[in-house]
Specification:
5 helices; binds calcium ion
């Protein structure tokens, strides 16, 4: 057994994860030009680029509540520390912090944009705002505590969201594939082939993204629809964006009871969805690694 694992380990470690995300549910957006999506823990919020309206819908698409922001051109959104954060590409660009209970704007940051804005998310206590920088830099990193910002050059992200402490994006860039891939984003480095291998292909152009703890939701702007994608992250038990031998090792340890897993780890390792982690799930993870 040990000899077999020694032989198989290098093969499993060398294989990256790349697949196609499929749509499992969809509904019509509550507005004519939907753009950004955000998840508040219970409901999805949708921004509209033409009306300056933000709508709260249930996961069947029924509009439950809405509010207007007069500047319009509302794009990416995210929830962070009990506020809804929304960007507008009007004028020099704005980041609004919104109290959704009272429908009031708590704070406004002037982005002083150079280019049209796309998405926003928070990661590692900093705010990231993507923009169309052509072949140059493409994202602002804001430290809202001390008011500093800098430009980053990375994988040309459009929509942004954070999934289990990893920043993810819909990759824009250039060419036919623009807007049709979601992938984890490494902001410290420039574009890399390894990063590209982590992509999940989409069959449509996505302009907004959010994550509800189990599934990615995407805004298909051209069709005017909000789409729920298949279970996201199954097999990535350690949550680093890659399914590899390290995940199989964690799953084996959960199975043997040698570690105390978090509920999230159990959910990610339970490949067949029967509520437990056993050898069948480990086999499925290894099959996923081998493609
Ligand atoms: Ca992993
Ligand atoms: Ca299972």
């Amino acid at each position: 057994m040990k000899y077999t694992l020694v032989c198989v380990l290098p093969i499993l470690c060398s294989l990256a994860h790349s697949d196609t995300l499929t749509v499992i549910e969809e509904f019509q957006a509550p507005c004519p030009r939907p753009w950004g999506l955000a998840w508040d823990g219970t409901h999805i919020w949708v921004s509209d680029d033409s009306l300056g309206r933000i709508s709260m819908v249930d996961n069947a698409g029924t509009c439950i509540d809405s509010m207007e922001i007069s500047v319009g051109n509302l794009r990416g959104m995210t929830f962070y520390q009990n506020s809804l954060w929304v960007i507008s590409s009007t004028g020099s660009g704005f980041l609004f912090q919104i109290d959704t209970d009272n429908k009031t704007i708590i704070d406004t940051v002037d982005i002083q944009r150079c280019c049209p804005l796309w998405g926003v998310s928070f990661w590692n206590s900093k705010c990231y705002i993507s923009y169309d920088g052509g072949y140059g830099s493409c994202m602002y990193e804001f430290d809202l505590m001390n008011g500093t910002r800098k430009k980053l050059c990375c994988a040309h992200p459009g929509a942004l969201t954070t999934i289990r402490d990893v920043l993810w994006c819909v990759r824009m860039g250039r060419g036919d594939g623009a807007g049709r891939y979601v992938m984890p984003l490494t902001i410290e480095d420039e574009w890399s082939d390894e990063e590209w291998e982590l992509r999940h292909d989409l069959g449509f152009f996505a302009m907004g993204i959010t994550y509800d703890g189990h599934h990615i939701w995407l805004c298909d702007r051209n069709a005017g629809k909000i789409k729920k994608m298949e279970k996201m992250g199954a097999g990535d038990v350690n949550g680093d964006g890659i399914i590899d031998i390290l995940d199989a090792v964690v799953a084996i340890n959960i199975m043997l009871g040698t570690i105390e897993p978090t509920p999230d780890q159990v959910w990610l390792a339970d490949m067949n969805g029967d509520g437990g982690v056993d050898i069948l799930d480990v086999v499925e993870i290894i099959e996923e690694i081998l493609g």
